[in-house]
Amino acid sequence: xxxxxxxxxxxxxVFLFLGALGLLRMPDIFNxxxxxxxxxxxxxxxxxxxxxxxxxxxxxAGKIVILILFIIFTNPLSSHALARAAHHIGxxxxxxxxxxxxxxxxxxxxxxxx
Length: 114
What we know:
Layout: H1 2-25, H2 29-54, H3 61-88, H4 101-110
């Protein structure tokens, strides 16, 4: 079981590394936030699962499940709130951005249409 836990933990570490790499490679804050959130959510879940499988005796499975649920619910929600706040204060999108749904919605609200 320790080998399976180590492999799953290693896969989780790769996801976390790719999330960090995405923060460096993406062109604007919105893309960085997406890359960081998706990769770190999956990486953290796999990392914690590997720890639970490999070292089940020292940590209770209930604690790991609570941590995983906390990550699943809070990581995407906090990223969404930060992205909405960044858009609200006017942080520009990358020049290659094709579509901006939030700007289109704001124009509809200003025109009186809902």
